[in-house]
Amino acid sequence: MEKIIKINIKSALGSFKKPQSNNNHSSFNIIPKSTLIGIIGAVVGLDRNYMREFNVYKFLSENIQYSIKLNKPFIKKYWSEYGYNLANKKQSGRSLYTPDKFERIVDIDYDVCIKFNDENKDINIILNNFISNLKNEVSIFPTYMGMANFVNDITFIGEFQSELKHGEFKSKYFVTDLDMSKDIDFTNIMSEDLPTKSLDYLVYDYKSYKNIYFNDKCEDLFAVGDYYLIDDECVEFI
């Protein structure tokens, strides 16, 4: 049976580097599944080396789906920082730290829904431990928003079961197919291509990406497709 958990994540800053970016450090506009998987692993105590060695990133990316709702307007800022320059290390007389441009998501407040099949024994163990630790306000390792100095605060909201529905719906969560039969104001609608598999084992495969839409002012979107009714809200998962 499909089970859905809902959490809230807050952070002052987030940076979710796109794998195809080179020296500009561009960030996804929305937290990708790989970062969420890292958060789950940190809360239950699976370190990064273990997750890579035993393909936990791959396993979780193939067995969970998620959706995001912005509770605060979307803000992205750009600035320069001094970063470690590996190329300069190989050339004597050059500075090891040089200016670099970064994108940062500011003042993050997300409601996150995670869907999984609780009849899968292995995924059930991991996600039930995740739920238990969040309820007890315990995280074995620190959780971050893409970078180690961007800490976050996670709150457990609830567990839900819901049947799959199909049709027209209205949602504050991201959606994949806008209902073009409606009179839509595109002024505050943004789009993003998000990976549906973990980037820790999949560098860049456009076939795994899903285009989503979200409203940067936290307003409703009119959509059509598959969705679930969760806590009186329509939620689509990828």
Write out key terms for the chains shown:
single chain, 238 residues, alpha+beta, Alpha-Beta Plaits, 5 helices, 10 strands, 19% helix, globular
Would you kindly provide a written description of the structure presented here, covering whatever features stand out?
This protein has 238 residues and is an alpha+beta fold. The chain has one domain (2-235): Alpha-Beta Plaits. Helices cover 19% and strands 39% of the residues. The chain has five helices and ten strands; from the N terminus they run βαααββαβαββββββ. It has helices at residues 33-44, 48-53, 56-63, 86-89, 121-135; strands spanning 2-14, 64-70, 76-84, 97-117, 153-160, 165-171, 189-195, 209-215, 221-230, 233-235. Strands 1, 2, 3, 4 and 5 form a five-stranded antiparallel β-sheet that branches. Helix 1 (33-44) crosses helix 5 (121-135). The longest helix has 15 residues, at 121-135. The two termini are 18 Å apart.
Structure in a nutshell:
The two termini are 18 Å apart. Strands 1, 2, 3, 4 and 5 form a five-stranded antiparallel beta sheet that branches. A hairpin with a 2-residue loop joins strand 9 and strand 10.
Q: What order do the helices and strands come in, and which of them pair?
A:
Layout: E1 2-14, H1 33-44, H2 48-53, H3 56-63, E2 64-70, E3 76-84, H4 86-89, E4 97-117, H5 121-135, E5 153-160, E6 165-171, E7 189-195, E8 209-215, E9 221-230, E10 233-235
Antiparallel strand pairs: 1-4, 1-5, 2-4, 3-4, 6-9, 7-8, 9-10
